[in-house]
From TrEMBL:
<keyword id="KW-0274">FAD</keyword>
<dbReference type="InterPro" id="IPR016169">
    <property type="entry name" value="FAD-bd_PCMH_sub2"/>
</dbReference>
<dbReference type="InterPro" id="IPR051914">
    <property type="entry name" value="FAD-linked_OxidoTrans_Type4"/>
</dbReference>
<keyword id="KW-0560">Oxidoreductase</keyword>
<feature type="domain" description="FAD-binding PCMH-type">
    <location>
        <begin position="49"/>
        <end position="227"/>
    </location>
</feature>
<dbReference type="InterPro" id="IPR036318">
    <property type="entry name" value="FAD-bd_PCMH-like_sf"/>
</dbReference>
<dbReference type="InterPro" id="IPR016164">
    <property type="entry name" value="FAD-linked_Oxase-like_C"/>
</dbReference>
<dbReference type="Pfam" id="PF01565">
    <property type="entry name" value="FAD_binding_4"/>
</dbReference>
<dbReference type="Pfam" id="PF02913">
    <property type="entry name" value="FAD-oxidase_C"/>
</dbReference>
<protein>
    <submittedName>
        <fullName>Glycolate oxidase</fullName>
    </submittedName>
</protein>
<keyword id="KW-0285">Flavoprotein</keyword>
<dbReference type="InterPro" id="IPR016167">
    <property type="entry name" value="FAD-bd_PCMH_sub1"/>
</dbReference>
<dbReference type="GO" id="GO:0016491">
    <property type="term" value="F:oxidoreductase activity"/>
</dbReference>
<dbReference type="InterPro" id="IPR004113">
    <property type="entry name" value="FAD-bd_oxidored_4_C"/>
</dbReference>
<dbReference type="GO" id="GO:0071949">
    <property type="term" value="F:FAD binding"/>
</dbReference>
<dbReference type="InterPro" id="IPR016171">
    <property type="entry name" value="Vanillyl_alc_oxidase_C-sub2"/>
</dbReference>
<dbReference type="InterPro" id="IPR016166">
    <property type="entry name" value="FAD-bd_PCMH"/>
</dbReference>
C-alpha cells in the first residue's frame, strides 16, 4: 500500500479533535497545534526525514495516553509516540501527520524493589538518570547505549544495545515487565517481576524492538544486578585493523570476557581529540581495541585482563595501556563517547549504516567501507562494537549539493547493505529500521518473514494507526 492511499484513509485533525484532546489533558500548555508546534517535533537526530505532526500532546499519565489513543482509533487518526527524539532512523517522525504523543514528561522513577532487584519507571526517564539512581543504591543497570539522554522507552522500542552488550546483553535482556497502551486504547500488562515465564507467546519481547508500531510503552519494570566494585580498561594498539579484529574471537573463547570490546581507527580518535580539545592516550597506530573489565575484586579483574593482554600481544598488538585510574578512564571513554558528536560536527549532514555482521567479518566490512569512499568519492567514518559485530558507519555530506548527496548516499547504502547480506549480516544491530531503513529490510528478509511481521502488525493494529509507515 503506497503512502498516498494510506494518507487518504486517515482523518485530518480539526478543531473538534483538538477540543477533545484539551478536554482529556485539561492543560492547554501541554497541547500544541498549528504554528505553536516546535520544529524539533518534525524530525529525529537523523534529520533527513521530516514531517510536522498536526497536533502534539505532552502526556503525563497512562490514562491520558489511553483516552487519546482510543479516540484516534475510533476516528482513524494516526498517532506517533515520541521520547527524546534521539533516534537515527526516522522512527519518531510523524510521516502521516496526525497526533504526536510526547512521553518525555512521564519521567518518574516509580519503585526500586531491592528484594526482586527490579526498577519500575515511566517511559520518559532518561538512561543517564536510571544509571545514576541505581548506582547510588549499589545496583547496576547494564545496557549502555551511547546516547545517555535517550528515554528508557526509546531504548526499549529499539532494543538498544551499547558497549556492554558483549558481557551483559542488550535492553531486551533487562525488561521484565511492561504496561502498554494498545492502538485501540486498551491497557495491558505483560511480563512482571517474575524471573522465568513460559506462559504463552512472549508479547513482552514482541513489544521490545517494535519501534512504537505495536503499542505505546507507559511503564517498564527493569532487571538490575549488583554493582561491580572494580573497573579496569585496556587500550591496545595494533598495526592494522585486521590484526585487531582477528584477535577478538580468541578473547571471547578465553572465557575472560570483557564488559566491552570496541574497535577504533586513527581518524575517529583524531576527530574526537579535535572535538574535545584534549589528547587521547595514544593516536599513533592505525587501529585499536578498547576493552573494559569489571568484577567484585581487584584479583578477579586483574586475572581476566592479564590473560586477555597476553592474548593480544601474542597476536600482534604493539602495546597494552592499562587504565586503572579515574583520570585515565575518563580520558579514554570520553573520547570514545565523543566519536559520534565529533563526526557530526565535522560535516553538514550525515546518514548511518548500523549493520551487524558475524564477529570474524568486521574487518572485511570496514575495509569495504574504505573501498566505498574511493568508489563513490565521499567521506565515510566508522567505529563500533568488535565484541558483537555491530558497526556504526557514517556517510558524510560535507560540501555536496542536495541532488549529488542523495545520489551518492543511495549508491553507498545499496552497496553496503548488499555487502552485509553477503557476509550473513543484518540491517540493524541496535538503532532499528524506522522509516529510513525500510527498503533495506525489505531486501534482506524473505517474503514469508515480512508477511509474518505484517501479520503481527495487523493483529495489534488493524487500522494501521500507530506509527504508520515504519519498520514493515
Amino acid at each position: 500500500m503506497n503512502n498516498t492511499v494510506l494518507q487518504s484513509n486517515y482523518k485530518i485533525v480539526d478543531m473538534k479533535d483538538i477540543e477533545y484532546i484539551l478536554s482529556v489533558v485539561k492543560d492547554d500548555e501541554r497541547v500544541f497545534y498549528g504554528e505553536t508546534i516546535n520544529e524539533d517535533y518534525s524530525h529525529d537526530e537523523l534529520g533527513g526525514v521530516k514531517k510536522m505532526p498536526e497536533v502534539v500532546v505532552q502526556a503525563l499519565s497512562t490514562e491520558e495516553v489511553s483516552k487519546i489513543m482510543k479516540y484516534s482509533y475510533e476516528n482513524k487518526i494516526p498517532v506517533t509516540p515520541r521520547g527524546s527524539g534521539t533516534g537515527l532512523v526516522g522512527a519518531s517522525v510523524p510521516i502521516y501527520g496526525g497526533i504526536m504523543i510526547d512521553l518525555s514528561k512521564m519521567n518518574n522513577i516509580l519503585e526500586l524493589d531491592e528484594e526482586n532487584l527490579t526498577l519500575t519507571v515511566e517511559p520518559g526517564v532518561l538512561l543517564m538518570e536510571i544509571g545514576k539512581f541505581v548506582e547510588e543504591n549499589d545496583l547496576f543497570y547494564p545496557p549502555d547505549p551511547g546516547e545517555k539522554t535517550a528515554t528508557i522507552a526509546g531504548n526499549i522500542n529499539t532494543n538498544a544495545g551499547g558497549m556492554r552488550a558483549v558481557k551483559y546483553g542488550v535492553t531486551r535482556d533487562y525488561v521484565r515487565g511492561l504496561e502498554v497502551v494498545l492502538p485501540s486504547g486498551e491497557v495491558i500488562e505483560i511480563g512482571g517481576k517474575v524471573v522465568k515465564n513460559s506462559s504463552g507467546y512472549s508479547l513482552k519481547d514482541l513489544i521490545v524492538g517494535s519501534e512504537g508500531t505495536l503499542g505505546i510503552v507507559t511503564k517498564a519494570t527493569l532487571k538490575l544486578l549488583p554493582l561491580p566494585k572494580k573497573f579496569v580498561s585496556l587500550l591496545i594498539p595494533f598495526p592494522d585493523l585486521q590484526k585487531a579484529i582477528d584477535t577478538v574471537p580468541q578473547i571471547i573463547k578465553s572465557k575472560s570476557i570483557p564488559t566491552a570490546i570496541e574497535f577504533m581507527q586513527r581518524e575517529a580518535i583524531v576527530a574526537a581529540e579535535e572535538f574535545l580539545g584534549k589528547k587521547f592516550p595514544d593516536n599513533s597506530s592505525d587501529a585499536y581495541l578498547l576493552l573494559k573489565f569489571d568484577g567484585n575484586t581487584t584479583e578477579e579483574v586483574e586475572k581476566n585482563y592479564e590473560k586477555v593482554a597476553d592474548i593480544c600481544l601474542e597476536n600482534g598488538a604493539l602495546d597494552v595501556y592499562i587504565s586503572n585510574t579515574a583520570e585515565r578512564e575518563e580520558a579514554i571513554w570520553s573520547a570514545r563517547g565523543a566519536f559520534l558528536e565529533a563526526i557530526k560536527a565535522s560535516t553538514t549532514e550525515m546518514d548511518e549504516v548500523d549493520v551487524v555482521v558475524p564477529r570474524n567479518r568486521v574487518a572485511e566490512f570496514v575495509k569495504y567501507t574504505h573501498e566505498m569512499e574511493e568508489k563513490h568519492d565521499i567521506r565515510i567514518r566508522s567505529f563500533g562494537h568488535a565484541g558483537d559485530g555491530n558497526l556504526h558507519i557514517y556517510v558524510l555530506k560535507d560540501a555536496l549539493d542536495e541532488e549529488t548527496w542523495k545520489l551518492k548516499l543511495n549508491a553507498v547504502m545499496d552497496d553496503m547493505y548488499k555487502k552485509a547480506r553477503v557476509l550473513k549480516g543484518q540491517v540493524s544491530g541496535e538503532h532499528g529500521i524506522g522509516f529510513a531503513k525500510k527498503p533495506y529490510l525489505n531486501q534482506s528478509l524473505s517474503p514469508e518473514t515480512l508477511a509474518i511481521m505484517r501479520g503481527i502488525k495487523l493483529a495489534f493494529d488493524p487500522h494501521n494507526l500507530l506509527n504508520p509507515g515504519k519498520v514493515c
